[in-house]
Queue: 3 jobs
Job 1
Amino acid sequence: MQTRSSPVSRELELDKVTPPGLVGLRRRLVELDRVVVAFSGGADSAFLAKVATDELGADKVLCVTAVSPSLAPEELADVRALVREWSLRHSEVETDELANPAYAANDGSRCAHCKGALLDVVGPLAESEGAVVVLGVNTDDLGDHRPGQQVASERGAVFPLVDSGFSKAEIRRASKELGLRTWDKPAAACLASRVPYGTPVTAPTLRSVALAESGLRALGFRELRVRHYGDLARIELPTHDLADAISRREEIVAAVRSAGYLYVTLDLEGFRSGNLNAALRREAQS
């Protein structure tokens, strides 16, 4: 068991912590007392899982990872590595969102169905722990199309990073100050986010995306997306990587074609996280 400090000494310790947002996050976690962290291994959920475990102790924090075809194999491997490195109490649960026709149809509410599937399995675990489900949502997420957040909130999940005012940049800065290797980890949304709305999400499609992205990472590209358009793959890389990509086009084409794509294109606008949501915004304005 972890030795707990007195309330007075804890208050003094909190006031010394930088950045200041960390004080609010730790106090919020103390209020919640016991939590189940939806742990994908990304910068946000990793930061939340580590701070929660350090603050409350592993006996009060269960980190849960949903394993499904929409989780990239590299992400699952990194989740397991972080669990070992940080001594997290952890559980993996399988979700089968593809069995839900509404999810597979891939309309603008896909994320809501996905979050519902997550809470179907995480909720009972939290109940057995006498805990609250917490998600690594940050303040930047509130301005995008995120129907899953509404579902999570309606089902009792809590967003401690939002409550304590953390933006994505602030999470990365605080993670760096705490010495967490995830501080600069590229954003890695679920693989289904690579499929344009209206195109059905299937296991083979997700597998092709995963293989193509794995092939590009093997070539040294860290931040990327492979958008799926049937036989065509549209690659998004940061603009500073575009020249390198063009000079290595034969390697890139070979890597992406080995994942099953016939046509390989490079998006000259560069990497934009969540850019497929633009189609929804255009549709709403028309």
Note: The CA atoms of residues 214 and 285 lie 36 Å apart.
Job 2
Amino acid sequence: MEIGLYGLGRMGAGMARRWLRGGHRVVVTNRSRGPIDELAADGAVPAYSVAELVGKLATPRAIWIMLPAGEVTEAAIQELIPLLARGDVIIDGGNTNYKDDQRRAAMLAEHGLHYVDQGTSGGIWGLEVGFCIMVGGERAVVERLEPAFRTLAPEHGYGHVGPVGAGHFVKMIHNGIEYGMMQAYAEGFEILKTKRDFNLDLVQISQLWQHGSVVRSWLLELAHNAFKKDPGLASIRGWVADSGEGRWTVQAAIDQDVPAPVITLSLMQRFVSRQEESFAAKVLAALRQEFGGHAVVKAE
């Protein structure tokens, strides 16, 4: 299959290399030149502008966008529209909000263009073990692209889950669940670490739990890898970002009247991680002092 790819970050570059290994013709472009040259050395066809990317693909074209969600992806789509021909399809493989997918599909349809949303999970490990691919779009359009989706995914790791927006909605909920799982591991390992009289070995325990335990998972394997590199995680600050999907998952739960306390609180804990000192905690301390005369720790 012939594939166009705009965006060669960690995920995009991994996808490109997996497609190349699968025998596809892959034309690549990026906002900076270096990654294009690297992929060209691996067998991709280089394109140093979006216009050149489009020009090197036969119709009907299939162009994947692997860029940050929001304005950057929006600008890329707007740049592509006048360059494409009726029947071409744009596939957004980033972490876009599903409502943006629905809006863009309607907009592109006015130009005779198709739109598919690809929820993509696997991170930097996707190149070797495959990406989990969750796709939303019109069935006929998706079926035409299936050779590319199946090359990206391991066995049973690709699914057409519904109409436009469904792929990114499923990926959004996937990431919300991930927030909760990660938070549970984080809290558990902190409880283990702070039981100082036992002097527990987190490297040992994180490996032990991978064998026969009901909490074994790939995330636990990654925790074990991290503890092996740095048992006390002394080189890492406890500052945790969120890329949007957790927030959108919580909002979807609110919109759909679904109680989701674990995912919601795991998102809140990420916000807590970014505070040098919590003003809310100061208020709590001040209130305890005011009503009960409880001691406070004075600021230096």
Note: The CA atoms of residues 84 and 99 lie 23 Å apart.
Job 3
Amino acid sequence: MFKKKIKVGITLSGGGARGIAHIGVLQALEEEGIFPDIICGTSAGAILGALYAYGYSPDEMLDIAVRSNMRRVFKLVLPIRGLTNQTYLLRQLQKYIPEDSFSTLQREFHIGVTNLNAGKHEVWHEGASLHDLVLASSAVPGIFQPIQINNSYYVDGGVMNNMPAAPIRHRCDFLIASNVVTKVEKSPDELTGLKSILARVFEISLWYRSRLNYDDCDTVIEPAGLNNYHIFNFSKTMEIYELGYQGAKRQLEIARKELEAIYAMT
């Protein structure tokens, strides 16, 4: 248990259903007396990061994940009549974070998004609707409609950077990465249909755009076993949560000496 106060940041990657593991990571951190002050989230990480920044505990976030039909948020469908909107996710945000403003959050929160017009990655922490930015960060291209903010259209932040760290690095004494997209090989039998191939391409690209940020982080939590869970399968909430929890526990044992050294200097 760490007693002294330092500024801890955490960046939460995108990863669809695997993002539920972030809740387990946050639970493990809090049990060690580590309460992140600054959160940066992308896609699923933006949704959960917003809840945490608003003030929900990991236990409360898990309850929300269990009770919400999260499959309606990231259901992989091929659009027939055009891209779908995110009405369900918006309703959930309005329900659990009724004040649509960064100023009402209890923790500093940054959201990674992709600007389609400018063709660049951006990280916001003020200056626009909180709800709109969360919707934009989780607007998977090819499935969801882009979100218009000011005069530009935005989509999933993971298109260019699935786990931004540099924008908050200078604001943290210790920066933690929670990456829920791991690289594993797939057998030919696992890539037999359009859905599995599209999901695999999405997974590989997310993994690559997450690892780009590892050098900016002090420790990286990459829970083992998440590759056994489809990134669009929300039916195993408790199992995914537990993998995040156990993965964070193991990594914190490795990072303990570094943390203790930083706390000793404060």
Note: Helices lie at 21-31, 44-54, 58-67, 87-96, 130-137, 166-169, 194-211, 237-265.
